[in-house]
Amino acid sequence: MGILTLPSRFERRSLIRLAYSMQRIHEAHVDIRFVLCNIKKDEERTMVSLEMMQYDDMIILNCTESMNFGKTYTYFSSLPKLFHGENKYDYVMKSDDDTYFRFDNLIESLKDKPRYDMYYGAGLVFEGKDFPKFMLGMGYLLSWDLVEWIAESDIPRSKLVGPEDLLTGMWLNMGNKARNRYNMIPAMYDYQGPGFHDFIPETIAVHQLKETTRWLTTLKYFNIKDKGLN
């Protein structure tokens, strides 16, 4: 899982590390990486350097720090080289730092899914419920072969500017790829409000956690449910 974030968001990364450390992942191996582009400010470079000394969970890419100017493409296309010679992953996910995933539910939902030509996420219903044209940027998953295709094909390289989630779907559509598509709405959804009735036990991901208070409300709900606390 690559979480696309900004160098300045040190506190957000710390919160996400804490949030995911409380989950016990079963039946799968999940690696989480924070994905940054070139760091220009000295103070941010210092902070990120300190993080890298403490944690082995950051990828810094040679790209422009903007979601709609090729960062997602650089992330996907860099992975085959970054992990060359290692055991290949089954899937690669792109996520944002305002999305919280429930890994046990995510893993359970993948058990019966193919590991080839697969595109998984939250697709807009009016864009095709069963075969969405694209998956929303809150977090979507590609099988490893599609990541290799993105790295090799001229199609993605020719279209780098625009909404990153829409572009990913466009690349796959133009290449006649991702014939296996899975729309996980309503288990992946936007944060609705502070009331516990706005969450569901089957949740795979909650999006739009823009403020720390939203993260804490979400974590309070799921940790209370998981641990059986009052």
UniProtKB/TrEMBL annotation:
The answer to whether UniProt assigns keyword Transmembrane to this entry is yes
One MF term from GO for this chain? hexosyltransferase activity
Q: List localization entries.
A: Golgi apparatus membrane
The primary site where this protein sits is Golgi
Q: According to the lineage, what is the superkingdom?
A: Eukaryota
In the record, the note on similarity to other proteins reads: Belongs to the glycosyltransferase 31 family.
User: What name is this protein filed under?
Assistant: Hexosyltransferase
Q: Which organism is it from?
A: Rhynchospora tenuis
